[in-house]
């Protein structure tokens, strides 16, 4: 080997890279000295004692990290490197690291990571080149499994994000079958199995504080005061944003909703506080009428067998806790009936989803499981409130079981295969999965678990819309189009039917073409808007009544107006609407304007109870000529409008509609109505007559 040209100021030894080895070359003699395999040397410059100490520290750090025998020594070296960097040796350290990164031996490469602005060496070798072992061929999916859909989802958090969230990216390939199940540690006591193709996992670092964003209306004043205007649609959107934080809502609906599960690991135990607690369950059992079977279940799942242990009668607290102590899981079926917070949250979310939002609460004792693997007919949001629970999710077994309309029976482990996600939820975490996702959960590590499942979209699909649309569409077509009233061929039973399905007959072909033509014409007779109103009627019957604040009550009939005074044995606090009174609906989705024949009805959920379908649908009839004012109120929300601005012909009609809606509790005034005394008015009138 020829001696390369070099400056006289170079040190006695320099690093050179050959095709296969890195060698130390004596500059004076030109004799190469081979380094031990997989070793890397840095330049040594005796003239600079500080630089010499830096090189020594780098070598010691590499050796300590590789052997992993003296962790404290490695930490001390890191501190020394940082100190030297602050004293002006940063550029030298960078050059040393660059030379180390460029050195390779037989396909061995050192990865570098950033640590507080300085590059250090991570000595976990990554094999590259010809020595890299080929991964074994991936097994084909089991029979009946679903291949991943051809889409790509990548969620990457910026490095400078203040919350430091780590987002795992997932990529779906249209050509490859699902990857085999793997077990991978997500965080402390959290295990993930299966492929990231089927789920999205977000994991903030431990100890990172994430504050729930507060719903703030755009019209909030600069001094921080909340305006009188209250927009229920805006509040519902902000609540949902907080629930799935930090996922972007539009990304959630475009890439995850009804497609794949979502796991958010927050490491903030108090994040879901305010929904429910074990203490509140105890209060409910002691103070409320809770019945076994109707309001609460006690269940077990042991040896692949689920059993319900509900005795008849009321669920008294000591009896329920005795079941719990004996390993039974507790399911509260309608927590919104007893918990004001759950009622408040669900009544807001139902506005966002446009359908009923429900909830169940599950309390599971340590090291137990209450329910067999199954799928549900709802979009499920699991909010972990207390303790820990291990969840295993499984993909639908076929396309027919994807997004089902009804819940499944119980499965065994043999029926469902390997999980696509295996994780432990801790307090503050969120797990979402679409309806049809097979799932099971059990407590681990000697801890209990309390979670609430928020549900939506139960039988609220395009198919359900068509079930209401098509019967009326056919009725309209028969009434409006003579083509639908012509008689069937007299001999059609001779060539139509299952027994004749394989026949090649021109009469059969003609029959099918005629049927196709009639079905095409059906669309022109479809009462789409009327069907939407029927779905709106169902919404008003299914949903919870709104929760009114004290500030809202004093602006409505619910907390303001006439009342009895026991001191005077008379009615006081009389109020009256005036033409210049500003009003609005108390909630955006409170009412539904429905035309049935020549009649106009107003359906609403204000008088619903907190028990599902406990009362009949609530509605009242108004004069058809008042309907434009109702539309005006709907379209004006959330803005207040003066009564005299209603699009009606006379002031009497305007006051009539406003009085009906206010007396029904549907309207809210911008300011509390002024109270006047009837007796004083009558006395004043009498004096004027005299």
Automatic annotation (TrEMBL):
Pfam families: JmjC_2, WHD_RIOX1. The keyword Metal-binding applies. Its EC number is 1.14.11.-. This is Bifunctional lysine-specific demethylase and histidyl-hydroxylase. InterPro entries: JmjC_dom, NO66-like, WHD_RIOX1. It is an enzyme of class 1 (oxidoreductase). GO terms for cellular component: nucleolus. Oxygenase that can act as both a histone lysine demethylase and a ribosomal histidine hydroxylase. Its cofactor is Fe(2+). Residues 24-200 are annotated as: Disordered. Binds 1 Fe(2+) ion per subunit. One of its GO terms (molecular function) is histone H3K4 demethylase activity. Residues 40-58, 84-100 have a biased composition (Polar residues). PROSITE patterns: JMJC. Belongs to the ROX family. NO66 subfamily. Residues 328-473 form the JmjC domain. Residues 63-79, 148-164 have a biased composition (Basic and acidic residues). It is found in: Nucleus. Keywords: Chromatin regulator, Dioxygenase, Iron, Metal-binding, Nucleus, Oxidoreductase, Repressor, Transcription, Transcription regulation. Its main location: nucleus.
């Amino acid at each position: 080997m020829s001696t390369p040209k070099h400056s006289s100021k170079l040190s006695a030894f320099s690093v050179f890279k050959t095709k296969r080895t890195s060698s130390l070359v004596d500059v004076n003699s030109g004799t190469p000295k081979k380094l031990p395999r997989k070793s890397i040397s840095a330049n040594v410059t005796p003239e600079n004692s500080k630089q010499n100490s830096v090189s020594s520290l780098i070598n010691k750090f590499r050796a300590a990290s590789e052997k992993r025998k003296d962790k404290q020594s490695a930490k001390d070296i890191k501190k020394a490197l940082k100190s030297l960097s602050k004293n002006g040796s940063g550029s030298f350290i960078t050059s040393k690291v660059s030379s180390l990164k460029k050195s390779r031996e037989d396909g061995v490469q050192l990865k570098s990571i950033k640590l507080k602005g300085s590059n250090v060496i991570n000595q976990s070798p990554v094999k590259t080149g010809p020595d890299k072992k080929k991964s074994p061929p991936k097994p084909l999916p089991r029979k009946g499994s679903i291949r991943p859909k051809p889409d790509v989802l990548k969620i990457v958090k910026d490095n400078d994000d203040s919350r430091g969230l780590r987002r795992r990216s997932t990529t779906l390939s249209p050509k490859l079958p699902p990857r085999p199940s793997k077990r991978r540690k997500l965080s402390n006591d959290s295990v993930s199995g299966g492929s990231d193709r089927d789920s999205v996992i977000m994991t903030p670092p431990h100890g990172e504080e994430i504050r729930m964003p507060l719903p703030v209306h755009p019209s909030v004043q600069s001094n921080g005061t909340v305006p009188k205007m209250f927009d229920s649609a805006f509040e519902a959107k902000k609540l949902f944003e907080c629930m799935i934080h930090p996922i972007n809502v539009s990304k959630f609906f475009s890439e995850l909703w009804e497609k794949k599960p979502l796991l958010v690991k927050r490491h903030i135990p108090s994040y879901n506080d305010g929904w429910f607690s074990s203490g509140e369950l105890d209060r409910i059992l002691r103070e409320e009428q809770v019945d076994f079977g109707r309001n609460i279940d006690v269940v077990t799942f042991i040896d692949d067998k689920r059993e319900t242990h509900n005795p008849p009668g009321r669920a008294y607290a000591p009896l329920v806790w005795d079941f719990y102590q004996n390993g039974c899981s507790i399911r509260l079926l309608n927590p919104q009936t007893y918990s004001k917070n759950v009622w408040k949250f669900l009544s807001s979310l139902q506005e966002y989803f446009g359908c009923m939002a429900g909830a169940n609460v599950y309390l599971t004792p340590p090291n137990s499981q209450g329910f067999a693997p199954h799928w549900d007919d709802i979009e499920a949001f699991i909010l972990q409130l207390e303790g820990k629970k291990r969840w295993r999710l499984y993909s639908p077994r076929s396309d027919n079981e994807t997004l089902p309309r009804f819940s499944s029976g119980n499965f065994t482990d043999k029926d469902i295969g390997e999980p696509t996600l295996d994780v432990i939820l801790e307090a503050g975490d969120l797990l979402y999965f679409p309806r049809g996702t097979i799932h099971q959960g059990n407590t681990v590590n000697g801890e209990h678990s309390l979670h609430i499942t928020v549900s939506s979209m139960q039988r609220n699909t395009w198919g359900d819309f068509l079930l209401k649309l098509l019967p009326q569409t056919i009725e309209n077509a028969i009434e409006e189009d003579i083509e639908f009233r012509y008689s069937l061929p007299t001999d059609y039973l001779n060539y139509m039917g299952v027994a004749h399905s394989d026949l090649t007959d021109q009469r059969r072909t003609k029959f099918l073409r005629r049927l196709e033509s009639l079905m095409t014409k059906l669309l022109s007779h479809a009462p789409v808007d009327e069907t939407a109103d029927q779905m709106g009627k169902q919404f008003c019957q299914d949903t919870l009544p709104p929760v009114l604040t004290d500030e809202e009550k004093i602006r409505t009939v619910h907390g303001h107006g006439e009342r009895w005074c026991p001191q005077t044995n008379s009615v006081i606090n009389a109020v009256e609407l005036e033409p210049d009174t500003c009003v609005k609906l108390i909630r955006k989705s409170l009412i539904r304007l429905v035309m049935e024949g020549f009649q106009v009805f107003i359906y609403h959920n204000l008088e619903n109870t907190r028990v599902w379908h406990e009362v009949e649908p609530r509605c009242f009839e108004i004069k058809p000529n008042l309907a434009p004012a109702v539309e005006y109120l709907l379209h004006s929300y959330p803005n207040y409008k003066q009564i005299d601005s209603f699009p009606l012909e006379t002031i009497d009609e305007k006051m009539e509609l406003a009085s009906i809606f206010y007396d029904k509790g549907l309207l809210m005034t911008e300011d509390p109505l002024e109270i006047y005394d009837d007796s004083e008015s009558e006395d004043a009138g009498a004096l004027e007559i005299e």
